[in-house]
Amino acid sequence: VQLQACGGGLVQPGGSLRLSCAASGSIFSIIARGWHRQAPGKQREWVAGITSGGSPNYADSVKGRFTISRDNAKNTVYLQMSSLKPEDTAVYYCYAPARGGASYWGQGTLVTVSS
Fold first, then answer.
1. pLDDT tens readout for residues 11-69
2. Cβ-contact 7, 108 below 8 angstroms
3. What is the DSSP secondary structure assignment for residue 79, as one 8-state letter?
4. Rounded CA gap, 77 and 67, in Å?
C-alpha cells in the first residue's frame, strides 16, 4: 500500500486548508484511514480517523474545526481544516491500519499556521 498526501501549505490563523491522501496498491487490506500530526519538538499525535463504513472520530483538540471524509471511488481521504490556529502547525501524516496488524504511512505534508 502506498499513501500519497498533499495539500499542506502556509495559512493565516483562522484560515482553512484541505489535505488529501490517495491510496494505491493492495488497498483491500486497509481497515481504516486517518491522520496524525507532529509539531516541532513534540511527539506525533493522532488527529482524526474514519472507518471503512465512514464513521469519523476526532481528537479533542480539533473537534468542531476539522472534518475527515473519504471518497471510496478515488481511494482518497480528505482532512478539511478550518479555524486554524498556530498550534495546528505540524507535519501531517496520513495513515492506514490494515489487516494482520500492518500500518501504512504517507510521506507527510507540512501545514504552517502563521500571520
1. 999 999 999 999 999 888 899 999 999 999 999 999 999 998 889 999 999 999 999 99
2. no
3. E
4. 11
Sign of CA dihedral 66, 90, 17, 35: negative
pLDDT in tens, 89-112: 999 999 999 998 899 999 999 999
- CA-nearest of 23, 7, 1 to 108 is 7
Cα Rg of the chain, angstroms? 13
Using DSSP, state whether 25 is helix, strand or coil.
coil
Give me the residue label for grid cell 502547525: 89
- Taking a C-beta distance cutoff of 8 angstroms, is the pair 95, 30 a contact? no
Residue 75 near residue 22, CB atoms below 8 Å: yes
| Residue 43, C-alpha cell as written in the block | 511527539
Q: Which residues pair with 61 in a beta bridge?
A: none
